[in-house]
Amino acid sequence: MSKLKIEAEVNGRKITRETEPHKRLLDFLRDDLNLTGTKEGCGAGECGTCSVFVDGKLVKSCLMPVAKASGARIETIEGLATPGELTPMQRAFHKTGASQCGYCIPGMVMAATSALRENPAADIEEIKERLGGNICRCTGYTKIFEAVEMARSVIAGDLPETVLEEDKVGDSYIGANVRRLDAPAKVSGRLKYAADMKLPDMLQMQVLRSPHAHARILSIDTSEAEAMDGVACVITSDDVPGTDGFGVFVHDQPIMARGKVRHVGEAVAAVAAEDLVTARRALSKIKVEYEELPGLFDPEDALKPGAPVIHDYAPGNVVKHIPVRKGDIDAGFAAADIVLEDDFSTQQVEHAYLEPEAGIAYVDPDDVVVVISPSQNITHHRHMLAEIIAKPINKVRFIMSPVGGGFGGKEDMIYQGMLALAAMKTHRPVQLNFTREESLIASAKRHPSRVHYKMGLKWNGRITAIEFNMLSDGGAYGMSSEGVMRKAAILSCGPYEVDNLKVDTTAVYTNNTPSGAFRTFGGMQAQFATESMMDMAAEALDMDPFEIRRLNMMKIGAKTHTQQTLETASLDRVLDAAETASRWETGAPNVRGAKRGDLNGPDTRKPCTLGARIKAETKSKNDAERVA
Amino acid sequence: MTRMKRGRGMAASWYGIARTATIDRAGAWAELDDGGTAKVVTGVTEIGEGILTVLAQIAADELGIKPQDVTIGDNDTARSPEAAHAGATRQTYMIGNSVALASREAQKALFEQIAEHWDVPFESLRAFDGEIWALDTNLRMSMSDAVATCKKRGVVPVGAASFTAHGTGLDPVDGSGSPWQAYVFGTQVAEVEVDTWTGEVQVLGIWAAHDVGRAINPRGVEGQIEGGVVQGLGQALMEDYQTDKGHAITHGFAKYILPTSLDIPQINCTIVEDPDPKSPLRAKGIGEPALVPTAPAIMNAIYDAIGVRIKSLPATPEKILKALRDHVPGREHIAQAAREARAQAARTNSANA
């Protein structure tokens, strides 16, 4: 392949490099110049983690072919301040706690810097508009807005620079707003996530994934791929030396598909090669013969007699059923003055951490298999991998690299095993970086749920009985389904003392993308149904929603749904706090929005109309042509 | 009919802290190091929530030094003690308490030497922010000197600890059990504006009150609440991973819609502190609970605004418009009459009771 010569000014230095013409500016910065502060989050210009300045203009470097950057003046996060220093914007991010996982932050700092360069007097509405192309999954953006406004005011001289410094501590560091110790590394782009790390002699891995939702694997022929120049190894489930299988509660998932595939995107084989392009080419040379099987795509179908069986060990397709019983449900409903019955459902939700899965494995000089990845559970992963590769536990070492967002989605060991196998086979470091598309189809999601709900109440608002039945689609593998069903069942009927209840939560196998751990672990699905029912009950009984909740709430000494006696309970104070803070106008929830007097307060934002807030149009025609 | 309609809704919630229905555990080592600094070593940690800073604050407070003088060694199964996993709203509770206990051990080792060195009772020693002193004396020195003194006496001030949370399993038949030893509660209020022409919902304000036990870093707690609220908002209104016969049809961020800066309500946090009696730090947690009440509060607010109850998430513009179209006029009038009758009956009943 002929090389392309790139001459450019990068962070104030002239550079000349020969590079591959297929590269994007993002690849050139990261791979050729080691400027890894610029991150890849989606590769499609949608998330903003790769934002840089090209000739002074904010650009998503994943969308720009490197050839277009030749002759340009490029500025990356590393170039904003001299090494060891931070700009006022970066210091403001540090001060307000605007970085959490930090993966979106270099791009966010670039966008924020651009906002103030375009308009140093930008108000909050304009700042929000100008940050609109940058996704953050951790912070809820609020501290980022605060940081940009703080930086603007400091730069303009409206606030003293001392506001950027740490607050003075009183007589304890507990309860103090100590600035995040990891923030300088994050706001400056210095922190190395797994995809940013390079080891000498490192191979790149790519994964062949199933195009079928449910199919038997008749044969896998890797010979042509293995024979390719630059390919170091190809691995399949045949390479697993120990007991194959991982999962958070049930170890039902092989490192790579074994005998059959159960969801689209499941790993079937993997290649480790000298470079990414070779690894990708080699995937196309692997021949897999499939025999398609009938698929299950709806959790209710999974429970029907004669339904296809996804896992032999679970002929009824049930991953887990959790029952909770308390009191006498029939007596409870018999004592009710009114009974409400309804159905609720929630969707499958993606974690969308900005850092796609990435990792490195190598075998160290003492024969320890080392895996570096943003794993949320290195302890359990070590246990499982030791079994899978048949090694003593102290010959397996997991290092948790900086996690660019997890939310439960990085608890599953979906790729670390493949890395370990390839490292063991080649005795070279191997790296695998997921694309966003790969992350979306291969990683677990929040369990979608269907809840059938029946609630009995007295006229005075007391709940007499609840029947709660939740069915969840666990997808192709067990992952965290058992725990999610358990937590959903325990929390199901909400923070209310209910004397009579019957709760069932069930997760089933289907051929959909697996569901797994996701922030709240079943708690939100269950309580969405309960809190909707509480308002429906409040309307039917003509009660204020706070009032009906206070009437039923758990207090100290209350017996929970699982009959645990609470020794502390704070719902009374929390309800009071929310009611007071929101200036809540008392009344039944009977569509009284038009009559409310508590709306539109100073503690709300203004509604937005797209495009209405950018005041200063500073884009020059030349700049527009270059970035177009 | 007015095009833009506003409304408010609320929702309450509860959550358990640390691993569910099992014993949970975490270990940590601490060493008061040269220069009055410290090394604290533990298992998993930071996934973005700010736990490193929280642990440094805890260690600093227990040891009597500054948070920036604490080095956390973590994330490595071959170099650090087990602290289990980063999830279940457990890190502040489990690892925080184990770091506190390990730091106490290390400080005790130092204090024993300094008490002898100064010839004062152990109980009279205090340390904070890099200095150590004995009550009711003029004896005072830097922690840097104190560590040097301790080491000259032949002792490296180290500590190790394990913290346990005693959850129990659930009975397989009736589910009875004590899954957690600490619970938190939360309440959120949402204010929305619904565009009845387009079906779009904007959340303009969230008031979030959450019990966290004890806020180690209040700004960090707010950051968790804000992040949780916005994830809840995403699930309430836009996020939807969809598949067709198992094939993802939302396979990129152009199709899988996430909240961005223009979707963000003003989030007003109230931190409530109901201390946990079962742990030395008395803190509980906030990571997951912050998300729980957001979606139902928003759905209740949409109902308040337009009289349409969305029972199937997310409340996309298409769903809102369909629900508005299917809305039977006059239903509220019937419902209201029934409600008034019931409420009257309730008042009569309770008056008679």
What would you say this structure looks like, in words?
The complex is a heterodimer of chains A (628) and B (353). Chain A is α+β, with helices and mostly antiparallel strands and 628 residues long. Helices cover 27% and strands 21% of the residues of chain A. Chain A has 19 helices and 22 strands. A 7-stranded mixed sheet of chain A has the order 8-10-6-17-14-15-16. Chain A has a 5-stranded mixed sheet with strand order 2-1-5-3-4, with helices on both faces. Chain A starts with a strand and ends with a helix. In chain B, helix 1 (51-63) runs parallel beside helix 2, helix 2 packs across helix 3 and helix 4 crosses helix 5 (294-306). Chain B is an alpha+beta fold and 353 residues long. Chain B is elongated. Chain B has a 4-stranded mixed sheet with strand order 1-9-10-13. In chain B, strands 4-3-2-8 form a 4-stranded mixed sheet. A 3-stranded antiparallel sheet of chain B has the order 5-6-7. Chain B has helices at residues 51-63, 91-118, 143-152, 218-237, 294-306, 317-326, 331-352; strands at residues 4-16, 23-33, 37-42, 70-73, 125-128, 131-134, 140-142, 158-166, 183-195, 201-211, 243-244, 247-248, 266-272. At the A-B interface, helix 5, helix 6, strand 12, strand 13 and helix 12 of A face strand 1, helix 1, strand 9, strand 10 and helix 4 of B.
